[in-house]
């Protein structure tokens, strides 16, 4: 299965979500063959992995970069998670074409949701919006959920709350997966149980 994390905006937690979802998949099934592809030229996921391995608690899956041709040739063995750049390029289209599921990350603000819809419209049926960095007590959050429901969006029931647990995890191998454990569970159920 190939899962990509996409949004045309930076700072919506694509990289954080890529790492945590791969960790959650590994935690749910340590035998699953997992790889994370860093398709963002800024290489934040690779930087995260290198920093973790230098601290001798490396991530339990390989993280590497791949070009358009390599992504085009990906097979769907095990689990491949692709972290993408905050721009919409030819590579993004290749990634969308190869993905079984495109997770569109968005924080619960009207601007992020507008941008998310544009990406959803490109990804079509494969798209599911994941609300990230949410402060669930705010009016923005409640209104975002109401508008997604009203507009018939395909979105995760799981919401990734705003927390320093995530922002301070850069460069570590996170073992407490918090909301991402539940998000991974939701993916497994929605995709009829990747093991
Ligand atoms: N749930 C969260 N709560 C608080 N901060 C978060 C959360 N998720 C990500 N962050 C922080 O937000 C910033 C952007 O996250 P990042 O994953 O790099 O986004 P992107 O890859 O979309 O640019 C980083 O500083 C990260 O640590
Ligand atoms: Mg990133």
Name the descriptors:
195 residues, alpha/beta, Rossmann fold, 42% helix, 16% strand, binds adenosine-5'-diphosphate, binds magnesium ion
Question: Would you kindly provide a written description of the structure presented here, covering whatever features stand out?
Answer:
The chain is α/β, with parallel strands linked by helices. It has a single domain (2-190), classed as P-loop containing nucleotide triphosphate hydrolases (Rossmann fold, 3-Layer(aba) Sandwich). The protein contains 8 helices and 6 strands. Helix 2 links the parallel strand 2 (34-39) and strand 3. Helix 1 (14-28) packs across helix 8 (179-190). Magnesium ion is lined by residues 14-15, 40, 44, 83.
In short:
The chain is of the alpha/beta class and 195 residues long. Helices cover 42% and strands 16% of the residues. It is globular, with a radius of gyration of 16 Å.
Distance between the terminal alpha carbons, to the nearest Å? 10 Å
Side-by-side strand order of the widest sheet: 3-2-4-1-5-6
What profile does the largest beta sheet have? 6 strands, parallel
- What is the count of helical runs? 8
Structural class, please?
A: alpha/beta
Q: Cofactors and ligands present?
A: adenosine-5'-diphosphate, magnesium ion
Helix and strand topology:
Blueprint: E1 2-6, H1 14-28, E2 34-39, H2 44-54, E3 63-65, H3 68-72, E4 79-84, H4 90-98, E5 101-106, H5 110-123, E6 127-131, H6 139-150, H7 164-167, H8 179-190
Parallel strand pairs: 1-4, 1-5, 2-3, 2-4, 5-6
Helix pairs in contact: 1-8
